[in-house]
Write a structure and sequence with these properties.
This protein is mostly helical. It is built from 17 helices and 2 strands. Helix 3 packs across helix 13.
Length: 357
Amino acid sequence: MQGSAGQETVRPADRFARGVKQHFLWLLVGCYGLAALWPGPGLAMRGWRWSPATVGETPITLPLLLLTLMLFSAAVLTDVRQIRTVLLHPTVLAVTLLAVWLGPAVLLVVAGWVVPWAVDGQATAGLLVGLALIAAMPVANSSVGWTHHANGNLAIGLTLVVLSISLCPWVTPWLLQLLGSSLSPRDQAYCQALINEFSGVFFIVWVLLPTAAGFATRFVVSERRVEAMKNPITLLSAVALLLLNYLNSALALPKIHHIAPRLLVTTVVLAIALSVVGLVIGWTLARVLRLTDETRSALLFGLSMKHTGLALILAGAVLADQPLAILIIVLATLMQHFLAGLVGWWLLPAPGVGGAE
């Protein structure tokens, strides 16, 4: 739309969407504060059921619908044509995809040894399971938004998201089983419950189908129309992520005062370490493989940001009685956006831009 002076006029809806993206981190913090102080509505909404019937042996709930919206929105906004250029460099792609899961897996193994010693034998039920769940997740959709903001290589950023989500039905159950074997028998039981919940039918119905529908919609709808709807779609996805974090935080944050201080500090440190490990690996790979600055930026965001939206869905279904498991996922969500903001500021000094999972 053009103004009278020939300059582009920004629609109020687009301006609002950009504002939400720019201040996403603080809105996320606000959701956590609301969940801690006023969890009632969140707990009530978590209990909503639209039908006694199930889809993929899983009841239809608000968190699942929010996940579907986020995945559909991300797929609609993904330009698959950019992925073709990355496929010309299979070695870089294979090494990077391996790093998506290897770094967090190593962190979990180390934490399995250190955490029981650090908290002097205090109850840690759910903490390492929550960490294992995050480690097994694919790359977050929001990493692409941060990559775009830092003028990074969008092609490799998009490829990491699409391929890691596509590989997730096989990698996630296998990795949860492998990582669970290094935990206590009690935590192994939780890992097995997560594997059972993460069935092939669940993934097809609630992850692959909405993703495929988003790609199909982009193919059918004109490029111009998709571009015109980019800000509203991004806004919907961001709101869905904020609401999903509120719903799940309502389970964990009101119980935070019952957690021993040393255990709480340990949880925060592990949440930060998840992103730091990804940043270190991304930087190292870029140096060793002599990648461009643009590709380095994509690796920094792609390897440090996990799909915590999907992790929250599984944790809410299986680990609702383990507040530490949900708490570390909530904190990981916050910390990966916070660190992404710092990295984005370092790479390109400008206001931070967050995104939806």
